[in-house]
Structure formats: structure tokens, C-alpha cells
Specification:
The chain has helices at residues 2-15, 29-37, 56-62, 75-85, 123-136, 164-171, and strands at residues 45-49, 67-72, 92-96, 108-114, 137-146, 153-154, 157-158, 175-186, 192-202. It is an alpha/beta fold and 203 residues long. The chain has one domain (2-202): Vaccinia Virus protein VP39 (Rossmann fold, 3-Layer(aba) Sandwich), CATH 3.40.50. It has a 7-stranded mixed sheet with strand order 3-2-1-4-5-9-8, sandwiched between helices. Strands 6-7 form a two-stranded antiparallel ribbon. Helix 1 runs parallel beside helix 4 (75-85). The longest helix has 14 residues, at 2-15. The radius of gyration is 16 Å and the shape is globular.
């Protein structure tokens, strides 16, 4: 399963530009707002799960965050991200891994995931993710998925939709919910995708 997914995402990132994939955001405002709302200093250890070549890392570096890790199943995605950041890429830790097989070497103050978790469609995958998150987050979990009003597929793959209650149930009782919100993401080709974002604190 992992190799199939890895090949899929390597092909996507190798053949498509940011304006050709639906998840691209010019500025990931909601993610930035939720990260800031944690109220942690610039030394906070932040990991972005499925970060690909998103712009979040650019903004975090510009705001002075010093301990950023980007994890993605696709090496091609991370190559593009490094090329875009140029010399600033040296300030970031880059990890190529399927999230369900990730073996962290440190704990994280902020764990951010926009649009990776919803690709885990089996109970076993979800359980592995939650187990890794519980063991390696010591602060905040910020997660964004397609909502019940969002797409049922992405990039040709099945996804799992959530609302604020079902997303919270997955991570309780290890994490306490702080807030949830929904937002419409406008894709580069002008369509709307409804997301639910929730932030949690480790209990």
C-alpha cells in the first residue's frame, strides 16, 4: 500500500505545478492563525504532516520559527519545496515517510496536518496515525480535512470526510478540543472545497 501511494504522489509532484493541484494555497491563513493561537515561542518544534511543497513553511520561516520539520510520503514533493526555498531549506528538517510508518526521533509542540489525514481510509491506518500522534505530540494538534460537505475524492484517491464531532472523537481522550471551524478553500481552478479544521491540546 505504501509503495503504491508513494508512486502516486511522486508522479503527481513530478508532473504537476502548484497551479495544477487543488490543494495549493497562496497563503495558508487558517493554518497560520491556529499555529499562532497556540501562543508558543519561535523555538517551538513544529511538524507539518504531508507538507509537500505547500507555502506554510515559507511563512513560518518568515515569521522566525526555528524548529520546523516537513514530512511527506513523496521525495519529489520535498525536492520541489527545497528548490523553492533555496538556501532557507537548510533551516528545515525534511523527512520522507508514509505517516503511518513514521518513527519520530523527537516530540513536537505543534503537529499540523492539512489534507493528509483524510487520505487514511481504513481503521488500521487511522489507528496507527493516532498512536503516533499520541506518543509524539506534547503540545498542540492542528488538523484540517475535507468536511461532510467537501469532496469525496482527491487526486483520484478516496478520502474520508469528517465534521468537528467525528474528528474530535478520533483523537479523544488523549487530546482535548480547543476549537473547530469550517472554511471554503478556493482551488487554483476556481472550484470550492469545504474543509473542517480543529485544534486540540494534549491532555
Amino acid at each position: 500500500m505504501s509503495d503504491i501511494n508513494k508512486n502516486h504522489w511522486d508522479t503527481v509532484y513530478e508532473t504537476k505545478n502548484p497551479d495544477e493541484v487543488s490543494w495549493t494555497q497562496e497563503k495558508p491563513q487558517t493554518s497560520l492563525d491556529l499555529i499562532r493561537s497556540a501562543g508558543l515561542g519561535k523555538d517551538a518544534r513544529i511538524i507539518d504532516i504531508g507538507g509537500g511543497d505547500s507555502n506554510l513553511v515559507d511563512f513560518l520561516l518568515d515569521e522566525g520559527y526555528k524548529n520546523i520539520t516537513i514530512l511527506d510520503i513523496s521525495a519529489k514533493a520535498l525536492e520541489k519545496a527545497k528548490a523553492k526555498l533555496e538556501s532557507k531549506a537548510e533551516k528545515v528538517k525534511w523527512i520522507v515517510s508514509d505517516i503511518t510508518e513514521f518513527k519520530p526521533e523527537e516530540n513536537y509542540d505543534i503537529w499540523h496536518d492539512r489534507a493528509a489525514f483524510h487520505f487514511l481510509t481504513s481503521p488500521e491506518q487511522v489507528s496507527k496515525y493516532v498512536d503516533i500522534a499520541e506518543k509524539n505530540i506534547k503540545g498542540f494538534l492542528i488538523i484540517g480535512t475535507f468536511s461532510k460537505n467537501g469532496p469525496k475524492k482527491c487526486s483520484g484517491l478516496e478520502i474520508r470526510q469528517y465534521d468537528s464531532d467525528s474528528l474530535s472523537e478520533v483523537f479523544e481522550p488523549a487530546f482535548g478540543r480547543i476549537k473547530c471551524l469550517t472554511e471554503d478553500h478556493t482551488t487554483p481552478f476556481g472550484t470550492l472545497q469545504n474543509f473542517v479544521f480543529c485544534s486540540f491540546k494534549k491532555n
